[in-house]
Structures
1.
Amino acid sequence: MNISENSILSPDAEMPKAAVAVSVVIPFFNAEKTLKRCINSLLALPSDSFEVILVNNNSTDDSPQVAQTAAKRYPQRFIYAEEKKRGPVFARNRGAGLARGEILAFIDADCLVEPDWLPQLLRSFEDPQTGAVAGRVSGQGGRTVFDKFHALFTFRGPRRPQVYRRFTLISGGFPTANLAVRKEVFQRTGGFDPSLKFFAEDYDLCARIYREGFHIRYNPEAIVSHIHRNSLAGTWKQSYGFGTGHALLLRRHFKRRLIIELPRCCFESEKLPLRAWIDLASADKKLIGLLTVSLFWWPLMGLTALYLAFLFREMQTRIKADQMTSSRQETWALVFLLFFKSFAMTLGRIDGALRNRVLCF
């Protein structure tokens, strides 16, 4: 089926009435550039047992018209709703409240679902103790340096299926770009926390799912492709927000938790009476450490040069493994973005640590 980027698919026949197994919830804010493609990818799914709830969160562009057109053409498939409270948390909770399906599948308006996405999600719910299923999030495009960077370093899940039974901060949390939850479990947890308007609400929900006695299954075959941030400002905002979320989650879900991340190893303990997450393995901290040592003896600056060369080589290896291409200039730009992202996250962690009275950097 040929899917147009610029127009919603025209119906060949009246949409059949069918039982709803899955309710796909999509919040959107000024998403006219991506929402049509998202809708078309859902229309191409080889299944009738799902509905799509499109929740307008105060958009000022033409995206509400796009969503309304889909709801009028396919009234058995699409539902248009509005949420005036600003923030994706409110919009997702609004969509979940309208859902008829037993499974709530959350994606974003800048996502495209693969044809096998829905069957893979449903197959992963066969175990009644599976409270949620997380799928793989891949990057769209790969044309710009930002596309390539976020494809390599943002929302990267494991390559193999796994089952998670607890939230540890460094594992067990998943983004709402591709997260399906049993409606019953979602209701038992209270849904997304409205106090977390923009960051950490998805990982917070995962933590509460475990607390209810359920596990989360990760299925790398349930794939959506996602348009990642495509600017320095967007990358900074997202990374900084992730950092503040780390500190908040540490305070909210642990009374005792110590994590010390070092290059190629990690120490974790819940015996000591403190809440601390110290990441000494990030690129920015390694660079700062090498530059600091070099202040005491300048010949050690050579170590900094060696580290940069190592990162360049590692970046080339990652690019090749993901079957992408990159010029020398682009590869150095990717190295710069790695420092940029990790520094923004570190500052976000420090900000979050001060606000939540934990040790997190």
2.
Amino acid sequence: MSINRKKLLQKAGWTVALLFVLLNVMAFLHARRFTHFNPGISVRKDPSKAPFPEKVRILFTGLDLPRPVNRRCPDRPYTTVVLQSNVPVSCWEMQAAGNKGTVVLCHGYGGERSSMLDRAYVFLDAGYNVLLPDFMGSGASGGNTCTIGFKEAENVKACVTYLAGKGEPVYLMGVSMGAAAIMRAASREALPVKALILECPFGSMRQTVKNRFEMVGLPSVPLADLLVFWGGVQNGFNAFSHDPEAYASGIRLPVLLQYGAKDDRVKRFETDRIYNRLAGPRSLVIYPQAGHESYLDRYRQAWTRNVLSFLAKYP
């Protein structure tokens, strides 16, 4: 081998090594900001409107996300309950005139319990009590970290344990990350729960990160895998094992699975795989014009009819 070719190969090797290190540093920083909220800021910035130097910084280090705070309080009587879990979990509890049981409403990523109030009112009007927890890192609950449903499953379990002592039917409803947290909790042990309502749960942690990269036109390989790896390392768990598709096989409770056909964050094949793997009674509802959003807002009558008729089957 000539000296020039040897030097060229060495330079190429160093370039590849440097690129690998740079990608890992970027993934580490992005994972940190994606799973650690910043309580020092109150507004989420729009990166598209940032000055060019700021856009470059965001590209390399990720976007700071404000810690979710409750934007409103219930307009009906409620009490606040703090449950012990991996962090103190603050919940709003509201009683209905007719006691058909309690629905636990679990919010999505970047949300908090006030984002579930409109759904809560539907259940209250139908005679169901409601319990609205702030997941770890959100609202009035402890911590500043979010594990996209993995450790939040412990918060779900704390809510079920609290309600189980009351001797009334318990139902779980979750949106996106909240649905994933419910699935993880329900697959790990037999929860004393009547039925689950799951809206747009993602197929796996890897797939949901992959979808996010594709949405902004960035290559998902190897960036998605690096982000998932470092997110798990920083938060003390194997993020590749956070897999609602796999959880579905261990869920024998009745499930109403709902999905918006225009969802760009969760793909239809993810929903189909989850549905096909559910081990108990199951129903699938597709809202044709809905994206990754509240189906209640766009399909109020249909959504209300679907969820209440489902719950009525499991008193």
3.
Amino acid sequence: MSYRSNKKWRLAHTQKRNASRKRYYKQFQRNAIKKGKRWTYDEIDLILMSNDTDRKLQKELGRSVQAIQIKRCRFWQGL
């Protein structure tokens, strides 16, 4: 597959890919107890320093996997 045809395929399937991502993340948001709550310093330390998977952290913290990933990413970006 050439670069041009690959780029064309990716542009055509962006909506399909985004829909499948939303479906994937929605299954983990059902267990989010602390939706909309502020992050504590202990929770931030746990997601940054822990070697556990995001699914284990989700169950322990009561937050969604997506929220954990976004918080970790924003922390490293300095936001």
4.
Amino acid sequence: MKPSQPSLPANRAFVVQLHKDAKPAQGDVRGRVEHLVSGEADHFASLAEIQAFISRMLTAMEETGESS
């Protein structure tokens, strides 16, 4: 029997840090996103770029077998 997996595993944790001048209410989202477990980080200038970073990180984890 496989042990139960947490619903919010640490290897899927990310931090989003907004630039001091970002104005999310006006659609200005820019800053930095970091994958906590690997320490990989990237700057972003849109929600699409945050999503792309997260997708890249999760895909890389799946390919290396680190997603479980």
